[in-house]
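Notes continue from the previous slide.

Worked example: a multi-chain complex. Inputs as given:
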Amino acid sequence: MASELFQMISVLLIVFSFPALSHGWGTDGHYIVCQIAQERLNDAAADTVNELLPDYAKNNLSSLCSWADRVKFIYTWSSELHYIDVPDDSCSYNYSRDCKDSNGVQGRCASGAITNYTTQLLSYRNSSDNRQYNLTQALLFLAHIMGDIHQPLHVGHTSDKGGNTIDVHWYTTNTVLHHVWDSSIIDTTEADFYSSDVTGYVDDLNQNITGKWSNQTSKWQGCSRNAIACPDIYASESISAACEWAYKDVTNGSELGDKYFNSRLPVVDLRLAQAGVRLAEILNRIFG
Ligand code: ADE
Ligand code: ZN
Ligand code: ZN
């Protein structure tokens, strides 16, 4: 009954939603992360993910990986779970200092949300516990926020809202720095190298995961004290890449073109791949 209602609401939201202003990787970024993850699920995780997905999305987690952005406006409580703001003078992340919402409630940020939804999904094994959660929504939030936390500017500086208030020119288009990292670099890559087809981009990232990055993937998946997820590590990497690459040499009004695109694309490639590999590993640990 509840899941049917959820399914109906989801369908309506998908049909009537319009593109979000600037939230998370754009739809292609989230699609890419979940597509990479889906192909790496073990049989047990793939089965459980399928059980949790609504009928119209069976075998297709990636089709719902932007769901969390579309529900921000009705689940207003969720909007602060997509990012982390760190102090302007810092290029590192500190859970107790930074993981809170605008009211100061501890744990309400992207890394706290990953821990929370991971815990909820673990209750899948225990049918008496799991009734208190909507595990379909937990899965969709986890899959989405794992993408967001790997977008460097989703762990950005407070005063510029992760680059949302920094106006830039992306080639001939006016946008903001945050959107360059959510969408523009990805869209330009697809247009320039893959005839605007996201599938080719996913294939190349998968080839690098089993090729030039193959000796790094176990390190990406590694977690302190055998924890299931290590969101504080992902957040630290993001703010560090934000300082080193996203914000670097950019000020209000900067003209960003080939030089910025070519030097930053490797960072975007790496973060998409890490997010996908780690999401799969987390789901494999939870359900495996
Ligand atoms: N709003 C405030 N800070 C943000 C960030 N780092 N990313 C996305 N939206 C934000
Ligand atoms: Zn988001
Ligand atoms: Zn964003």
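Summary box: The chain has twelve helices and five strands. The pocket of adenine (ligand 1) is lined by residues 83, 85, 153-154, 156, 161-162, 164 (CB under 6 Å).
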